[in-house]
Please model this.
Amino acid sequence: MVVEFLYKRYWKQFIAVNVVHLVTIGYGVTVGWTAPIIPLLRSSETPLPAGPITVEQASWVGSCLCIGGMTGTILFALIHTYFGKKVGLLLLAVPHLILWTLLWVGDNVYYIYVARVMSGLTGGGICSILPLFVADIADKKIRGTLGSLTILHINFGVLASYTVGNYLSYYTIPKVMLCLPVAFLVLVSLLPETPYCLLRKGKIAEAEQSLMFYRNVPDAGHKTIAFEYEFESLKAFTAAESSKEGLTFADFKTPAAIRGLSIGIFVMALNQFSGIFAILTYAGTILLYSGSSIEPKYALIMLALINIAGNLTSFAIIDKAGRKIFLLISTVGVGFSLGILGLHSFFSDPNDLYMGTYSWVPVLCLSLTIYTAALGITNVPFFLLPEILPPKLRSIGSTISMVLLCFFAFIMVKAFPILLENVHIHGTVWISSGVCAVGALIIVFLVPETKGKNLIVDENNSSSDKARTNVY
Model:
């Protein structure tokens, strides 16, 4: 009965959120695409006429996505602010269409570079728009659940890439993936603009119709008192947003602002320098270098499934256990797992039959690394960020943090394959393990627990667009 009630009341919200996440799945495919493809491009079986790519070129293939991410975060933040979230969502399909077209027709590595930048543009746009779209349309009772679907859809895309990338040819994958942004464009065009964006444009009647759509109210005769109250509160909230004072430099100098921004920058740095995104990007290469006895294509699928399992575990109990404890457990777990992986690599000798009996260790260590990272490092920063920033700085603070996240990702993904060549696996993963050790100490002594913090003290007097979401 409860499930039936929830379905009848919220089914349009679930459908709308899953429709806009079609592009998120596509982005997840591009994130995971490099794991099976880079080893192929570097091998003698490369599909590129110019021959195998170099380590330097491989590092650019991985890191160009992050350049696009920095640009996309700012670009799409401006687009949805001035033109609305529906326009911003529809435009997300453009770089996605371009990137798969380039990979389809491209015959050298420079096409791949541009395609990866296009992928980053989509990723930055997803981070800028989707959390706010969910906050705009979701009922407060399921806002957290709907907001948590973003990282899951990305990881579903990674799983698809790890799976399909090993069985479809290099030029077949783009042909298949071009269908996704086309379906996204068609379906998103059928969704109404969010009530909040329509109210900002002064379109009160259209805003009410939009809210009726997302609240599954068929006509005016079925409007309830609760619906009327929600719509009036939303109008008051929008009016308060329009009349609020602009940011000044003094707003950034308060103790709360300095502390919030510092912690925000720290968790974004931890998210990347722990090495998780680089590991997902180069997982196939790491498995080849580590001497694992498990065939890489099967190991990649297993790692993607473990990643999703970690996300599901975190989402199931994080609101009960708390952000800080999950972030700490995750950081310690990643540091420990990478430390063991480094030890195995350091002492490993392919000619030593005794060490060969432990060739399963790299896959186990990577599995533990990815699972424990999914518990906290990969998702808690996005829960934590709006909870530690002062209300007035949540929007600009989140944008700054997301741009820095992409910058940190660029540094890590660009350096990772070069480090693998020069200091080998053990030196590379020990660097990330050391980052986790320092990060764990900072979490214990400086990061506050924010579980249960109310982001909206007064819905009619909120100070930030992003303060309306419980998740990001």
User: Anything to note?
Assistant: The first helix runs from residue 2 to 20. DSSP finds 22 helices and no strands in the chain. The two ends are 31 Å apart (CA to CA). Confidence is low (pLDDT under 50) at residues 1-6, 454-472.
